[in-house]
Amino acid sequence: MRRYSHWRRILAGGVLLLAVHAGWIQADELDKTKALYKRPSSIPFPVQNPYTPEKAALGKMLFFDPRFSRDQNLNCASCHNPSFGWEVPFAKAIGAAGAPLRRQSPTVLNRAWASHMFWDGRASSLEEQAKGPIESKAEMDIKLGDVVKRLSAVGDYRKAFNTAFPGEGITENNILKAIGTYERTLVSGTTPFDRWVEGNDSAISTSAKRGFVLFNGKARCNLCHSGWNFTDEKFHDIGTADDLDKGRFEITGKQEDLYAMKTPTLREVAHRSPYGHDGSLTTLDVVVQHYIQGGAPRPSRSPLMQPVPLTNEDVKDLVEFMKTLSSDSAAIAMPNLPVPQ
């Protein structure tokens, strides 16, 4: 412990030699690790739904339009609010008739790189994901066919669809394509961590740098929160107290998926409390404490969930690092929604 503390003091003095539980990280090894988290230079769009600015602009209008709910009181942003990391600051999202849903709403940020949507991965594309909440009785509670009728009564929407989808117009499929296109453009902003990865050594604090080493070393966070988006896009039972929600098991019926939920991105995590599929982890400190303890023991708990002996200072450093994964809040210009004429 004295040797570990000694090297922490050296790090504070600016020497690029970082201590972890298994040895030392030299400057070249640190650079290799940082490179694993470098942001991509472009957004991937599927061949079957390529990007066009007209389609994205239309999708943005649809995303914020309450005509997509039975009572015209909810839109996609009701659960995915840009002011809160494209989530909502509640343990559970609110659906039709003001009733809470069974899970916390996941962020829609960086979903262009995702292979599965929802906590349980039941949708394999953003187009499929968009349809789910619209037609869910508990959420927006309206059939897409009825949405088509509503939008078809609006002249400006007819024009917008004909521009985005020449010769096709307003169809259920085109509605989902437009929303999916817009959602793929929702990418987290450049963060202090990104600037550090790009070479600005003063972009994050010494505490956050120690946290990065812990994240990729003794704390073992990178085993699930990997890559530039800080998620392996896999499903794990992390031992939360909720034993009623069976997670991905409800989709696959496989025992290995019992209580398993998709690893969430850590991008914009400082803006997205509370945490966990059930919103039971109220702060980042509570999240780290949950992992230190290893979660509730049960047969399905991921073997990656092991108690981790971290000090209070380690916890502080990890939280400081995770805060560097959030960008400055940026105002989102709301679209002008067409009205019937």
Automatic annotation (TrEMBL):
Keywords: Electron transport, Heme, Iron, Metal-binding, Oxidoreductase, Periplasm, Peroxidase, Signal, Transport. Its cofactor is heme. GO terms for molecular function: cytochrome-c peroxidase activity; electron transfer activity; heme binding; metal ion binding. The keyword Iron-sulfur does not apply. It comes from the Bacteria. Signal peptide: none annotated. PANTHER family: BLL6722 PROTEIN, CYTOCHROME C PEROXIDASE-RELATED. This is Methylamine utilization protein MauG.
